[in-house]
């Protein structure tokens, strides 16, 4: 059966209209998608230049260009590239993370694999700039966290190609973690294991501490920093005699509630320094309250690389820490 010429035109117009707004005319389930492109934590924001330079752009920057907590130098949580809708070509549509913002009919959408795979895609539109700002203020933090979590999951997938066998110490504690082969065990004690990944320009350290669960709810979080300092003062010594690692208290750490393997946990992002020396850097820690095994598990990772930017390295360490699973 031949399709009438006017119907072909209508279908073509519909396809072009959808593409111009960054919306797929069909679901991704029925398409063969190209591989997405882009570096770690890179984000393409599609919006008119005048919106970017005004209140709408400021709202976007507030949530997607804010400084990452717990880093010694200012680095934004994402590397953002703003493009005009007319410049949103096929190459840019293959970007790993995309946010499309426009004036128009009120609409919000968040999907995966819209134009490429793997990909996150969020779409915001509203009739006025004021309403658009309200939508971004409402959804911005959620979208930012979802993109971050997506990047962590991609990092974990990349690690699967070169993971070491789960250390016996972790098996005994009922824990499994996806630890890359680049880490080697330096120390094991009854309640602690220490691993290092050392290279010419940087060091990544990792330790796991296990102790009985304290049921005093009022003590949640109060011993996180004192415990870390007590452990690092013994197990992480500096190059100079008498020097040791401790939490940098000049810039207080940031705490957030979260979950690791469905168990309540407190995330701590902060800076460490070497008492009696000049070394320092960022650290990330999760204190997990495992009701099933009656354990409090601390998983902690830190980075040293004075000549390097830190954000992407800390993303790697976060992916390792968040791979923890309880197997008992």
List keywords for this structure.
8-stranded antiparallel beta sheet; 5-stranded mixed beta sheet; single chain; 15 strands; 2 domains; 328 residues; 8 helices; elongated; disordered N terminus; alpha+beta; Protein Transport Mog1p, Chain A; Chitobiase, domain 2
> What is the terminal separation in angstroms?
63 Å
Roughly what fraction of the amino acids lie in strands?
A: 25-35%
Mind summarizing the main beta sheet?
Answer: 8 strands, antiparallel
What fold name stands as the CATH topology of the largest domain?
Protein Transport Mog1p, Chain A
How many domains? The number is 2
- Mean pLDDT level: 90
Q: CATH homologous superfamily name of the largest domain?
A: Mog1/PsbP, alpha/beta/alpha sandwich
Helix proportion range: 25-40%
Compute the number of helices: 8
Layout of SSEs?
Elements lengths: L4 H16 L21 E5 L2 H4 L2 H10 L14 E5 L6 H4 L3 E7 L3 E6 L7 E7 L2 H31 L8 H5 L2 E2 L7 E5 L3 E7 L4 E10 L11 H12 L8 E4 L6 E7 L2 E13 L4 E11 L4 E10 L6 H11 L3 E2 L2
Parallel strand pairs: 1-2, 1-3, 3-5
Antiparallel strand pairs: 4-5, 6-15, 7-8, 8-9, 9-14, 10-12, 11-12, 12-13, 13-14
Helix pairs in contact: 3-5, 5-8
């Amino acid at each position: 059966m031949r399709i009438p010429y006017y119907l072909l035109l209508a279908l073509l117009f519909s396809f072009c209209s959808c593409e111009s707004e960054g919306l797929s005319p069909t679901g991704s389930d029925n398409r063969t998608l190209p591989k997405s492109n882009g570096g770690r934590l890179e984000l393409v924001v599609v919006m008119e230049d005048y919106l970017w330079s005004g209140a709408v752009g400021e709202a976007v920057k507030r949530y997607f260009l804010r400084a990452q907590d717990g880093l010694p130098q200012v680095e934004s949580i994402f590397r953002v590239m703003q493009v005009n809708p007319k410049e949103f070509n096929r190459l840019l549509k293959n970007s790993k993370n995309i946010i499309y913002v426009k004036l128009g009919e009120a609409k919000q959408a968040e999907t995966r694999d819209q134009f490429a795979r793997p990909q996150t895609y969020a779409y915001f539109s509203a009739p006025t700039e004021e309403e658009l700002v309200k939508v971004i203020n409402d959804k911005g933090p959620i979208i930012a966290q979802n993109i971050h979590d997506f990047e962590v999951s991609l990092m974990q997938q990349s690690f699967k190609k070169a993971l070491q066998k789960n250390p016996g110490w972790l098996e005994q504690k009922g824990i499994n973690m996806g630890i890359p082969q680049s880490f080697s065990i330096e120390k094991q004690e009854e309640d602690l294991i220490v691993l290092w990944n050392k290279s010419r320009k940087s060091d990544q350290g990792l330790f796991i501490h296990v102790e009985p669960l304290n049921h005093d709810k009022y003590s949640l979080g109060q011993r996180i920093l004192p415990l870390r300092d007590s452990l690092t003062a013994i197990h992480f010594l500096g190059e100079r005699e008498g020097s040791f690692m401790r939490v940098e208290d000049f810039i207080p750490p940031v705490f957030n509630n979260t979950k690791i393997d469905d168990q309540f946990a407190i995330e701590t992002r902060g800076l460490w320094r070497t008492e009696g020396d000049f070394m320092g850097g960022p650290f990330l820690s999760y204190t997990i309250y495992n009701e099933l095994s009656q354990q409090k598990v601390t998983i902690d990772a830190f980075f040293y690389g004075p000549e390097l930017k830190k954000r992407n390295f800390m993303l790697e360490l976060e992916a390792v820490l968040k791979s923890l699973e309880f197997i008992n």
